[in-house]
Amino acid sequence: MDWQWIWHSALLVLVGMVLLRIAGRKSISQMSVATTVIMISIGTTIVQPIANHHLSIAIGSASVFILTLLLIEYLEMKFQWIERLLNGHAKVIIDNGRYMHPELRKMRLTVDKLEMQLRQQGVQDVRDVQTATIEANGQLAVELKPQARPVTVRDLEALLAKHLPLPPSPDPIFQEVRQSGHAAPIDPKLQ
Q1: What pLDDT sits at residue 117?
Q2: What is the mean pLDDT of the chain?
């Protein structure tokens, strides 16, 4: 029995991992259309040599795919029109609390599916949404109206500063690390 297929398989997996690492992708949701097509092609190409005994052709093909991807990404950075052509751009689907039905129809997105995505982002009422877009990667981005935004620490500090004097903040513990030592000597009883 020929056992070469075992090391061929292991080599192809390692080469695939290296090539995908070079491509620099973190998750499928971050992939463009071109990236997705190339990644599927690489997967198909890597599997073929095990059956056809063409290991070097598979590695070469996968390398050409990655080089093509890198070239496409470089051109997208250099020329914005290529990025728009290959990836598209964000589409406004809610404006000032109102659904943009023509855009929803163009994107074949129902109000029910959009509302499901809004709920997943914690939006309870579409009237609270200033702007919502479907980004080029297919994800929903939501900007809430000022009165619907969560309160931040900065908001609270500004409010408190108007009405109450704030006590001086203690020395941060990270300041000790920056200064390479403790601010006060440690009590020997604690050691």
Answers
A1: 92
A2: 78
